């Protein structure tokens, strides 16, 4: 395993993501789950213990879970759907170190309408051009390995997946990268739902321009990775001011 400092940082980052989900209204009761590969391993990941509200999550109360669903470290219950979804994605996508699954309302709303898609109609949406998978089959509650594997296969090599009648899943190579996508996905979905509520047609950005925007956001010139870190660092500073116990 990685050194203790790297594991401590990983725990703190994931705990921060849980707290920020509450701040932005992405959480739902004691449901939903975020996971992060334990640094220095390829078969262990951090996961929230079921029964704890996201606002209660701290760095130290996250569970360490192995690929077979065994609790390696921590106190609490491993929620089955959390394990089946996250373990399958971590297995199939080694690059997906962080996996965030939520039922955040505006994204969920788009999974509830026939043919629901994130339309390239604003700048925030355009950053996701050709980066979204759509799973148009609702397989019920993920309570089996087969359903987890089906979900992972539907995600493929994309960073974001809209899950029909269910919610969304976002993956990234770091918590900062995954959080960046989760935040801007929320903003894009929120804006689209508001625009659709006017009853007037959306003014879509041409594919060529949407692709250009996505490439600009990803480009080295824009310093995407550094920007993700800056955004997440700013969010953590707010937590350190208002909820410093997340690091405990």
What does this molecule look like?
This protein has an 8-stranded mixed sheet with strand order 4-3-2-1-5-8-7-6, sandwiched between helices. The chain has 248 residues and is an alpha+beta fold. α2 crosses α5 (145-155) and α3 crosses α6 (175-196). It starts with a helix and ends in a 6-residue tail after the last helix. A hairpin with a 3-residue loop joins β7 (160-163) and β8 (167-172). The chain is built from 8 helices and 8 strands; from the N terminus they run αββββαβααβαββααα. The chain has helices at residues 4-23, 80-92, 105-111, 123-126, 145-155, 175-196, 207-218, 224-242; strands at 33-37, 44-47, 63-66, 71-73, 98-102, 132-135, 160-163, 167-172. The protein has a single domain, classed as 3-Layer(aba) Sandwich (L-fuculose-1-phosphate Aldolase). It is 44% helix and 14% strand.
CATH topology: L-fuculose-1-phosphate Aldolase
Q: Approximately what portion of the residues adopt beta-strand conformation?
A: 5-15%
**Number of DSSP helices?**
8
Q: How many domain regions? A: 1
Seen as an oligomer or otherwise, the chain set is single chain
Largest sheet: 8 strands, mixed
Structural classification: alpha+beta
Nearest-integer average pLDDT: 95
One letter per element, helices H and strands E, the order comes to HEEEEHEHHEHEEHHH
Helix content: 40-55%
Q: Name the CATH architecture.
A: 3-Layer(aba) Sandwich
| Shape, principal axes of CA atoms | globular
Query: Could you list the spans in which at least 5 consecutive residues all have pLDDT below 50?
Result: none
Number of strands: 8
Radius of gyration: 18 Å
In CATH, the homologous superfamily goes by the name Class II aldolase/adducin N-terminal domain
